[in-house]
Amino acid sequence: MKDKKVKVGILFGGMSAEHEVSLKSAAALVKNIDRDKFIPELIYINKEGHWRSIDEDAFNRQDFAAKESHSFIPWLNRPLDKIDVDIYFPILHGPNGEDGKVQGLFEMANAPYVGANSFSSALAMDKGAAKLMFRNAGLKTPDFLVFSENDADEIKEQVSQRLPYPLFVKPNSLGSSVGITKVRKEEELKPALDLAFKYDRRIIIEVGLTAREIEISVMGNEKIMVSPPGELIPGNEFYDYADKYLEGKTTFNIPVKLDEKTGKKVKEMAGKSFRALYLNGMSRIDFFIENKTNEVYINEINTIPGFTEISMFPKLWQVEGITYTGLITRLIKYGFEYHKQFRFSCDWNEKL
Ligand SMILES: Nc1ncnc2c1ncn2[C@@H]1O[C@H](COP(=O)(O)OP(=O)(O)O)[C@@H](O)[C@H]1O
Ligand SMILES: [Mg+2]
Question: Is 120:303 a contact under the CB 8 Å cutoff?
């Protein structure tokens, strides 16, 4: 990058259950970003969705109320103060940050940004839609059914005809294991459905596998890099919210040594699934390896994965010799590259 430093607008916080996780990811990003190349500009989004520019001192004190906030949507409040940055780096997890909404705003503003485009982000966040795309690409994923609240009367019957227990009942578009229940028998179905419907108008019911949980990082645009696999071993029966964020009993093997055939298969599926959702930028892709068959299933793709120094996504790159700081630089470059090559340029305009 040229002699002038690049101003990177780091967006963090956000209107999701993963607000606090985002604060941690952002802190690691700010700490490690290469100051010879970049100037971080901190933009905090509170839980109500209001945006605030934060100076670094306030950020380090975790004082996010230091300045007056404003709605991002200019016509709802007062005009947005122009934020003077060269590229945005949303480090927001979950709904409103990872699901394409904020990415759509950047696209509308013709602004470069780091990470997946709005459509792919939305696809990846919608578990049912993503699984259809995976299936369509010939990738195995646990069998599933998606229901909306209107289908409530048919759920039991459809499930009994089509899906064997145990099952996982989940909100269709959430994250962080919020609202997810493992259901072992029919009597447990109703409370699991009620819980999942609390969080989402659509829910997904999946066949539960007894499996290892393997994750891979992918980054790039047209040309992609695929990391070695890592494994997480949940402390609880599955990788639920408490295990993820409260109890910290999960153990991680980074990297994990799989047998050669399975290792190859997982990496190949990682690349294919990234393409299957038309992705760009970065992703952490989560798989199951079924204990009894050794079959690889794709579970889901996270387009803004956990980004602290000890998170799986950067840790897997470290195995490849890419430092956390080097990773940030790469992702920013991919953001500029994508903006230049694939999007927002109205070349038809010039032809008129
Ligand atoms: N079909 C399944 N079979 C076995 N375990 C599952 C299945 N689906 C989810 N899980 C368990 O639940 C956890 C959270 O599910 P996941 O679909 O990854 O939701 P989230 O988007 O909230 O991370 C997984 O990491 C895994 O431990
Ligand atoms: Mg998950």
Answer: yes
Task: Tell me which residue range forms the domain holding 170.
Answer: 145-207
C-alpha span between 176 and 92 (Å, rounded): 13
194 and 235 in one domain?
A: no
Is residue 64 included in any domain, yes or no?
A: yes
Determine whether the shortest distance from the Cβ of 125 to ligand 1 is under 6 A: no
If one residue of 140, 173, 299 were mutated to test the ligand 1 pocket, choosing by the most ligand atoms within 8 A of its CB, it would be: 299
* Structural domains in the chain (count): 3
CATH code of the domain containing 177? 3.30.1490.20
Residue range 274-319, pLDDT digits in tens: 999 999 999 999 999 999 999 999 999 999 999 998 899 999 999 9
Is the CB of 239 within 6 Å of ligand 1? yes
User: What is the pLDDT averaged over residues 208-234?
Assistant: 97
pTM beyond 0.85 = yes
